[in-house]
Structures are given as structure tokens and as C-alpha cells.
Amino acid sequence: MASTSKDMVLTFVNSLVPTVRRALCDPLPEVRQAAAKTFDSLHSTVGVRALDDILPAMLSQLNDPDPAVAESTLDGLRQVMAIKSRVVLPYLVPQLIAPPRVNTKALSILASVAGEALTKYLHKILPALLAALSASLGTPREAQELEYCQAVVLSVSDEVGVRTVMDNLMDSTKSDNVDVRRSSITLLCAFCRHTHADYSQYVPQLLRGLIHLFTDSNKEVLQMAWEALNAVTKTLDSNQQTAHVSDIRQAVRFAVSDLKGQDLLPGFCLPKGITPILPLFREAILNGLPEVKEQAAQGLGEVIRLTSAEALQPSVVQITGPLIRILGDRFNWNVKAAVLETLALLLAKVGVMLKQFLPQLQTTFLKALNDSNRQVRIKAANALSHLIVIHTKADPLFMELHTGVRAADDPAIRETMLQALRGVISPAGDKMTESLRKSVYVTLTNMLGYSEDATRAAVAGCLGALCRWLSPEQLNATLSDHLLADDVTLDWTLRHGRSSALSVALKEAGKQVYADPNKEKICRVLLAYLMADRVPIAMNGVRGCGYLFQHLMLTGQLPLPQQLLTPFVRTMNHSSNEVKQILARVCCVLGKTVPPQQMAPELLKLVIPMLVNGTKEKNSYVKANSEFALVAVLRLRFDDEMTQRCLNLLDIGARESLSDVITKVLRKVANQPEGKDEELDDTLIT
């Protein structure tokens, strides 16, 4: 044929074509190889007719019942491809991917010999593979289809091909169809795990996409996303691990933004959920630059927050060791603060699993409690409040903190020591021995009128928290001698300290404190505080009423004390904007913490018109806080049921004013993202 004119070949084409076609499917490989060269000459002479007359027949022969014939035919196609891929592919691909049945087997064999020529058609082939794989899920064909599809994807090694695979499969993992998501993540996982191609430039994109799949509701998708992430992070060396910490943090935030009302990321809660990303954090914490260490500690904290205790369990030692090591070194304060916060989060989550580290953690936290930086001290105090919960012999820790409070000359250190003492008393005051509790009690009551504001507030917080753990006799004595011993002629600092302590006691020990025979007296003292001319004392009166009302509504002890209601809501007319603001903030907390069906109608009827007035105040803080309070009390972020109930409670004038504010202002406020709740208790430092 090579030595014959085109016309002459065309004359004999009807005999040549069947001969070449038969030879391409011959049982002997050397015949098939020679036939492929002949096919090349034939095509060069007769053009598309060679394709039309030979390839469709070979394709249909791929399904021959005799496996030997089908295999020979496939190899014939392979031989043709090796020589003529640029001509054969545009002809074959559309036929192999045409519905209803994508021929994944033939595609996998073509892919193995097509080389880079296949890249041009990947954008058409990949969707067809996903359709075939999706259709086979849950059928006996699934494993075989997956093998063929993987073979096609793994044949890709050139730069453009890798980009096409990444873009196509990552896009398909966002599909609404769960089968398509499952198929695409399965292929992506296979590619990331087995390819010899370099995909390092796609790592940030992969981290973002795979961690986003950790929000998926389908177990198989979650598992494959986890395996893919594991495969990706295993390809990174130590420098790359450190470099990708910020990508992981971004990816986690991106995923969290799509978590509808869940506190945990489903993918992190799989067994060993966070192990694929732990090595990155560990490397950055131990060997990164200071700013990278801080980033990594914060990022690890964010991940811990989103992981269940069971899923964290296998990684506890891996996480805790490096963090303790860092705190032992001399790093700047922000690294220490970030590490302490992460350890506190871990303790809050897994608690008792960290028991083996208790001595090191205690030593580390106590050392940090004397740090020159205030943030480090506050974080250490918070960490101790979680550590105390798993302590079995807690007295030495209480004693150390008590001694620290008494010995501190620097008011700033004293304030954080008191915060730490309060932090351990609140959850575990019952772990203190009687003798120690008494000596702590004496120290606190002696300092209740302390001249320095921050110390006085912190002492009051400690004493208020301690009330929960006192015996009934001790508590009665504390109330009559200190918390309820109100006298207008007293030095104002002592009166302020007592008002703070009463407010905290009602918050943390409402059940024990607001009991007979002290109920009447508590109401009388709170009333006196509401009327006080000193603003900080009046603010504590508002707080104390708020905590009392919260306790009574949550425990179903209605109606609320009548003598307090009107003076409480009338603080919106106080001359100080700070008092007005605290009233609105108290109402906001009540709206968020008390279920709507337990809200006292007598309080709602009085307080809502006052908050409506608050929205018309000149002071922007009072105005904003009143708006937030109404949104919380009316539950405008949820539905209109509570709003309707409140409207029905009001007189016609007040009802119209409320409707007006809802329409003009509150709907808009309710649609804005909810800010972080401010702490109502001013004896706690942040």
C-alpha cells in the first residue's frame, strides 16, 4: 500500500478493509502489531473510511461472548492507538462515552496507551466516568467499574491533565446528587493516593474542598473525604506541613460557615477524625517560627472545638505533649496564650483522658499564672478551672492559689490569682477540705471592702461562688453578716463589694441562697441597691434582680416578687446610661436563656414597653442594647409565636409602639448576624 497510488488502493479497498480488520483482532500479538502499521498506511491513503469501516466493528466485538476474541480486539485497538491516537481518539471517545452505557473498560485500555493525547478529551470523559460509576454504586458491577474509572484517571500525568482532573472532580464533589459526590470523591481519593504526578500546587484547593466535605451527611462521602485528606497530607514534607497551617485554618472556617446549627464537624468525629491534619499542627507548634506556633495553636484549638471527645481520644497524647513542651520554653506571650487556650479547650472536651498529664499541666498552669502578661495569666486561670474537675486531691492546688492571693503585692497579679481561685471554686468547691474552706472564707470576707476596684470585684466573685459550697449554717451566717448586711451609712466600697457578691451568689447558687428565711430580706436588699445613688451599686442591683428572675423562671417559681418588678424595669429611667444599658443587657440574657414558655408574663408586660422606650434613647449603646434585648425576648430570630404572645399581653398604646418598632427597626436587627454575647457578670475578667 505504501508503494501504491491512492486510486489503486481505493480500487481494492473492499478487500483490504476486512483483511486489516481481521488482522487487528488476530489471536497472535505480532499479527496485531503488523496490522496496526498497515492500518496506518490505509488511513493515510483512504482517510476517514478506514476509521468508519474498521473501528465500529472492533468496538462491537469488544462485547463478544468469547473472552479471547474480546481481549484480542482490545489489544488491536491498543496497537492502533499507539500509532494513531491523534486520529483515533476524536473518533472513538464520543462513541465510548455515549449513553446509555459508558464503555469504561474500553476507555481504561485506551487511556493506558493514549498518553497525553487523552488530556484533550478529559473534560468529556470524566463526567461520563462519574455517571457510569454513580449508576453502578450498590450493584455487583461497582468494584469493576471503579477499577476501570481509576485506571483512566491514574493514566493522567501531564500538567494540563492533572489540572483538568483536579478541577473536574473537585467541582463534582459539590454536586447536590449524593451518588455523584461519592463517585467523584472516590476517584479523587484514588488519584491523590496513587498518582505519580505532582499535584503540590493544588494542595490548598484540596484542603479546602476536602475539609468542606467533612460537613457531608453521607457516611461514605465522609469516609472517602477523610481518606483523600489523609493521602494529601502524607505527601507533605515538614516545611510544606508548616506552610499549609493557615490553609487548614481557612478551610475549617469555610466548612464551619456551612454547618447548619451543628457544633461539631462530622468528618472530624469519625474514628481518628483529625489524624490527617495533626502532623501539620504538631510540626508547626514544635518547629515553626513564633507567629506560626501561635497560628498552629489557635488552629488546633478551633479543630478541637469541632471534634467529639471520642474522636479526640486516640490523639490526646500527640496533641498534649508538644503543647506542654512549648509552654516550658521562653516564647512571647501570644504563643503562650494561644497554647494555654488550646489546652483549656482540650481539657473541657476530654477531661479525664488527660489525667496522666495532670502534674505537668498543673505546674505549667501555675507558672503561667505568675507571668508578666495579663492575657497569659487569664488563660492560665481558665485552664485551671478545667483541670480542677479531673483532680482527685485538689487541696494543694486550692492552697497554692489561696497563698498566691494573700502574698501578691502587685494588684494585677492579685486580680488574676483571685480569678483563678474563683475558677476552681465554681466547678469544684466541694473538693476543698473544711479547714481550707474556712481560711479561704476568712480571707475573702476581710477583703470584701478592698479599696482597689479590680481586686474588690474579684473577691466578691470568689465569695459569691463559694456560697454554693457552704453548709446551710455557714451560708446563713454569710448572708446575715455580709451579703445581706446592708447599711447606707457604710463605706461605699464595702457596700459595693457586698452587692457584687450577692449578685454572683444569686447567679451561681440561686437555689441555696434564695430560700426561706432569707427571701424577704434578699428582695429588700436588692431594692435598696436599685435605689442606690452610686452607679456601680445600682448596676449590681439590676444584675442581682436579673439573676434572681432567671433562677425563678427556670425553676418555675412564679410569679416573680412583685416588690422588685416595677423598680427593676424603671431603671430604664435612671439618670446614668450605664444603668439603662445593664437593664437592656440583663433582659437580653433572660430572652436567650429562659425558654419562651417559662417567661413570666408579669415581667414581659412591664419590661417590653420600657425596652421600646430604650430604642428611642439618644445614647447609641442604650439604643443598640435595647434593640438586641427586644430581638432576644421576642425571639425574632426564630418565629413570630413569642412576638404574638407579647403583643397580646400589652395595652393598645404599648402594642402599637411595639409593632411600630418591630417593623421599622427590629426585623432588620434580627436579620443581622448575631454578635458574641457580652458577659453580664463584671466580676469575671476577660
Task: Write a structural description.
- The model has no long low-confidence stretch (mean pLDDT 92).
- α9 (159-172) packs antiparallel against α10, α11 runs antiparallel to α12 and α15 runs parallel beside α18.
- The protein has 35 helices and no strands.
- The longest helix is centred in the first third of the chain and has 30 residues, at 67-96.
- The termini are far apart.
- With 686 residues, it is mainly alpha-helical.
- 71% of the residues lie in helices and 0% in strands.
- Among the domains are: 6-98, no CATH class; 558-685, no CATH class.
Give keywords.
686 residues; mainly alpha; 35 helices; 0% strand; protein kinase regulator activity; HEAT_GCN1; ARM-type_fold; ARM-like
Low-confidence parts: none
The average pLDDT is: 92
Question: What would you report as the Rg, rounded to the nearest angstrom?
Answer: 37 Å
Overall geometric form = elongated
List the helices and strands and how they pair.
Layout: H1 6-11, H2 13-24, H3 29-46, H4 48-61, H5 67-96, H6 104-114, H7 122-136, H8 142-154, H9 159-172, H10 178-194, H11 203-213, H12 219-234, H13 238-243, H14 245-256, H15 278-287, H16 290-305, H17 309-312, H18 316-328, H19 333-350, H20 358-368, H21 374-387, H22 395-407, H23 411-428, H24 434-446, H25 453-466, H26 472-483, H27 492-513, H28 519-530, H29 535-554, H30 562-570, H31 577-593, H32 601-614, H33 620-633, H34 641-649, H35 652-671
Structure summary:
The protein is built from 35 helices and no strands.
